[in-house]
Amino acid sequence: MQELFHNLPGVIYEYVIRKDGSRLFTYISENSIDILGLRADELRKDSSLFRQILLADDRASFKDSLNASHEGRKTWNWEGRITVNGAIRWIETRSNPVVSSEDIKRKGIIIDITERKQLEQEQVSQYQSMVENRVKEQIKKNEILFTQLFNNIPMAVVMLDANGKVELVNKGFSNIFGFELSELKGKNLNDFIVPAELQNEGMDLNNVISAQGIIQVETFRKRKTGERVDVLLYGMPILSDDKVLGIYGVYVDVTSHRMMEEELKVRNAELDNFVYKVSHDLRAPLSSILGLVNLSKLPGNTDDPAMYINIIGDKVQALDHFISDVLSHSKNLKLDVKYDHVDVKSILTKTIEDLSYLEGAKEVEFDIAVEVDCFYTDPWRISEIFRNLVSNAIKYRTRGTHKPKVQVRIVSDKDWVKIVFADNGIGIAKQNLDHIFEMFYRATEQSDGSGIGLYIVKNAVEKLEGRIKAESQEDMGTTFYIELPNRVNEGEGAHS
Question: How far apart are CA 341 and CA 377, in angstroms?
C-alpha cells in the first residue's frame, strides 16, 4: 500500500484538527519530498512547515479558504503557489472532512499542477497577445483612415490642443491659406489668419473650449499673401469624459460663392438698368417715327414725303444699331470662349471696311502697325473689340479743325499681345473718364450711340482674361491700352 501511495501523482494526506486547536498530519505519503520538497516525517512532526513553503502572497487565501471549509464542514478545494528549492510551483489540494465527536479529520490529496498552470498562462498570454495585436491592427487601421481623411478632405482642417495651439493642419488648409504645419505648430492660429479688423470679433476656435459645443460662423480670414478669403467656419471640441482634449476647426472657402453673389447683384442691377434703357431707347425713335407718320397724314400737309422717309430711315438705322449692340452684349455673356489662330491685322482692316458706311468714316485716316507672329485668341471677341473702338473713333472724331486720325500699334511677346488704340478726337472729360466702361454711359452730348459699346469692349477683354485702361484729354483725343493673353499653347478650338 505504501508503495502504491508513493507512486501516485499526488501526495496523500490525513490532517487532524483537535478540540484544543492543535493541528497535525497524522499521515502523509512519502512522495511529499518530490512534490513539496519536504519529507513526510518532517511534516508529521511539524505541520507548520507546509504553511512556510506557501508563497507569501497566497497565504491569506489559503487560510481563509481552509477556515471556511472547516466551519461549513464541507469539501475543501484550493489552488496556490509554493516554493521548492527556490522554484515556484503550483499545487492543488482537495480534501473532505470526517467529523468525529472529538476531532475534525481531513483526508485529501495535493497535486502538482505547475505544467497545467503554465499551459493555461501560455494560452492566456497567447489570447492576450492575439487581442492586443487585433487592437493594435484596429488602432493602426483607424489611424490610417483618420490620416487619409484628415489629409485628403478638400476643406481646410486644423486641430488645436486644449490651449488653442496648432497641432495639425491638412493639405486643404495649406492650399487655402498658404501656411505649412512647420510655420504654425505650437502657435496661436489667430496670429496668422485672422485679419486685424477681426481681432475683436470673438468668432474663433478658442470659443469652443469654453462653449464645449459646435460653432458655425460665416466670416473671412486672410491668406499668407494677405489676400482675403471668405470662409464658413465650423468649430468642434474633442471631448473625453467631458474634458476638452482639443479642437477641430474646418474652414470652407466660399470666396467664389461670395463673388457669384456679388456678380449676381451687379447683373441684377444691370438688368434693371438695361430694361429701363432698352424700353426708353426703343420707344423714343418709335415715337418719333409715329409722330412723323401722323404728321404726314394731316390734311393740307404739303411737306415733301421724302424728307420724312429720310428721317424715319435714320431712326430705324439707330434702332438697328442699338439692337445689334444689345445682341452683341448678350452673346458675349453667354458664348463660350473659343481660342483659335487670328490674323489680327486682317480682322482690324475688315472691321474698318465694314464700318465705312458710317457718316464721316471716309474722313478718318488709319495708321496701323502690327508686329505679331502668332496670336491665339477668340476671333469673335477680338472682332467685337475692334468694331466698337473703330466705331467710337469715327463717331467722336474732331470736326473742321484738323484731319481725324487713328493710330493702332499691336505688338506681342511670348505670353501677351498688347494693343494701343489712339485717336485725336474730341476726347473725354476727366470727371467722365472713370465711367466710360459702365453700361449705357454717354460721356458727351455728341454721343448718339447705344451707350454700351465700351461696356461690351471691357466685358470682352475680361472674358479673354485681359486688361484694359483708357487715357484721354478733352479736344486732344483718347488712347486705349489693351493687353490680351496669347493662348498659343492651347491649340485650335480649345475651350476656356
Answer: 7
Rounded to whole angstroms, the Cα distance separating 157 from 100 reads 82
How many other CB atoms sit within 10 Å of the CB of residue 112?
19
Cell numbers placing 477: 483725343
- The full set of domains in the chain, from first to last, is 2-112 (3.30.450.20), 153-253 (3.30.450.20), 255-333 (1.10.287), 335-496 (3.30.565.10)
Cα–Cα distance, 83 to 420 (Å, whole number) = 105
Whether this prediction's pTM lies above 0.70 is answered by no
pLDDT in tens, 222-278: 999 989 989 888 888 887 777 878 888 888 888 877 777 777 777 677 666 666 666
Beta strands in 46-179 (DSSP E): 76-84, 87-99, 104-112, 156-161, 166-169
Which of these ranges, 22-31, 41-50, 340-349, 395-404, has the smallest mean pLDDT? 395-404
Cα gap 276→452, rounded to integer Å: 14
Q: Quote the CA–CA distance of 64 and 54 in Å, as a whole number.
A: 14
Q: Which of 111, 106, 83, 84 is nearest to 96 (CA)?
A: 106
Vertex 196: Cα angle to 190 and 202 (nearest 5)? 55
Query: Which H or E run includes 354?
Result: helix 344-354
Crossing angle (nearest 10°) for helices 344-354 and 379-395 = 40
Backbone angles phi, psi at 17, to 5 degrees: -115, 115
Rg (CA), the chain: 50
